[in-house]
Amino acid sequence: MPRVTASTLNCKFPTGSEPRVWLLSSGASPIGIALSRQLLAHGDVVVFGTQFNDTSDNTDPRSADFAAFWTEEVLVREGWKNRARAVGLDGRNKGQCQAAVAEVVSLFRRLDVLLCCSSQAIVGTVEELGASSRTSALVRDQFETNYFGHVTIIKAALPSMRAMHSGHIILLSGITGHLGTPGLGMYCASQWAIEGFCDSLAYEVAPFNIKMTIVQPNLEISILTNEITAAPPLPQYTPENNSAPLFRELIGGLLDRIDASTMASNGNRYGHAEAGRFSSEHIVSVSPQLSERMQSQLLAETITALTAVGGHDNPPTRHIVGHEAVASVKEKLKTVSEELEDFVEASCAVDLNAEAESLSQGLDDDTQDP
Hints:
The chain is built from twelve helices and ten strands. By secondary structure, the protein is an alpha/beta fold. The protein is globular.
């Protein structure tokens, strides 16, 4: 099955006199590997953050794909080996984040682009995720990865970027940063939290010529290319008792179809589909197994967007990727605007400026009385 290449994607890169140095917070992820193919082919330098010690470590479920990519492509293609490094990087470990950035700067003298692309998704309603100490722990893990992990690596990179008076931080988020999704509330909350952090950070670091961009692709990008963990369902939230379009049912049906398609195109080498897997009485974790063709098609728009904005002299602060994502965000903004107009009289019922002026006038009148 042919891979998507820079030519088929028609990737466009910002102009520059030197190769850019990238650090990918989750270099062994599908998005990390797919993006790095384009970056290395273009001549850039890529440092892969991984949560396993070396390219042959089999303790991480992604290590096999990354090891194959490293041995069959990075070590073989001309010029790639000298422009690629793998470093241990777990965003939840402050020391590892600082060491990873220090190694990048030591090897390549600078860090131009930091891509924060680590993610995991916790599926369950608010009540389901608070039903036990174990499900509550899932929520904490969600924020450790999707919020605190990004915060830690960004803070580690800032001193070097300030010293260079340049740099570009990219957060790979999703339209869940705009849209609430029933049954995915804690995941959405972690996205809103990190986006609020990055929006504020952008103002703080602008005087140092450090750019900040939030890239928001379709929901499927971050969900289907990372681990998904589901809490046990409560009876009150089953389809029979609750009409809300809960994400558990949507993602379960989608994964069933993906499994069937993947097994058909790969001779069943990915195992058996597990119908209703997210209806278990136990906590269930799944790493979707996408066929190479399916994964390439899924990631194509996002890869094209990242190569276009990464290291740009004047990048967007927020970049929404894909027709569906753009349509969804437009619909949300339309709804917000309509509700604002519906209740604008209530919103502006008390004019504090007018009240202050009236009070001030009253005080002036009092002081003028004999």
